[in-house]
Amino acid sequence: MRRLIFATGNQDKLREIRAIMEGLDYEILSMKEAGIEIEIEENGTTFRENALIKARAIHARCHELVLADDSGLEVDYMDKQPGVLSHRFGGEDTPYSIKNKMIIERLEGVPDEKRTARFICAIAAVFPDGSEVVKEAAMEGRIGYQEAGTNGFGYDPIFYLPEFHCTSAELSPEDKNAISHRGKALRLMRKELEAGIH
Q1: Distance between CA atoms of 180 and 4, rounded to whole angstroms?
Q2: Catalytic residue among 69, 70, 79, 129
Q3: Predicted confidence (pLDDT) at residue 20 exceeds the cutoff of 90
Q4: How many CB atoms are closer than 10 A to CB 110?
Q5: What burial letters (b/e) apply to 64-98, b meaning 16+ CB within 10 Å?
Q6: Cα-flanking dihedrals φ and ψ of residue 6, to 5°?
Q7: CA 20 to 30 Å from 72, out of 8, 78, 116, 165?
Q8: What pLDDT does 9 receive?
Q9: Is the N-terminal amide bond of 173 cis, ω within 30° of 0?
Q10: DSSP calls for 14-48
């Protein structure tokens, strides 16, 4: 079976990826599982640029099919912050419970209609021959008033989905994968891989 190396060490993310890519004719490996240890400086100004930086760096080591994603939260009231700095917002090693509290505090007194936000995900693929494809998708919602739910990770507990009357951390993994930014972008990428044009 062909190998697909996904540029992540995040086991929660890897679980989502494997669930969405199930049945694809690839063995999906994390960087660690593929024996690749590399520090990558994500210094792009967009999710797309960061995803490509990661995918290219891993591809240079293995020359196999590499996928990498960059995703984050844009809060309209905060001028689309934290954006590409979502992981580093409030300090790289700061727990998300504190990051989430910081965002809720920034939006104190802000009414529902101004709490709009979205998760964005860009997934880059670098194929064995060096050709590249990027797919992007978003999930719209708003910032809640407190954390709720334990099924998600990162900013999921404060990301409220009005149509579901809950946060993305309160959705089942299956429901979340069906509507999430990463789920949508992965399905677009899956179609690309199934088409086999690379």
Answers
A1: 22
A2: 70
A3: no
A4: 16
A5: bbbbbbbbbbbbebbeebbbbebeebbeeeeebee
A6: -105, 125
A7: 165
A8: 81
A9: no
A10: HHHHHHHTTTSSEEEEETTTTT---------SSHH
Distance CA 148, CA 157 (A): 5
Give 2 or 113, the one with higher predicted confidence: 113
Residue 93 annotated in active site: no
Rounded CA separation 47/22 (Å): 25
Task: Name the DSSP class of 90.
Answer: T
- Mapped onto helix, strand or coil, the DSSP state of residue 7 is coil
User: Which of 3-7, 96-100, 131-135, 174-178 is the least confident region?
Assistant: 174-178
Cα-based distances in Å from 62 to 1, 26, 58, 150: 16, 16, 7, 36
Please check whether residue 127 is in contact with residue 55, taking contact to mean a CB–CB distance below 8 angstroms. Answer: no
Under DSSP, is residue 184 helix (H, G, I), strand (E, B) or coil?
helix
Domains of the chain listed by start with CATH number = 2-195 (3.90.950.10)
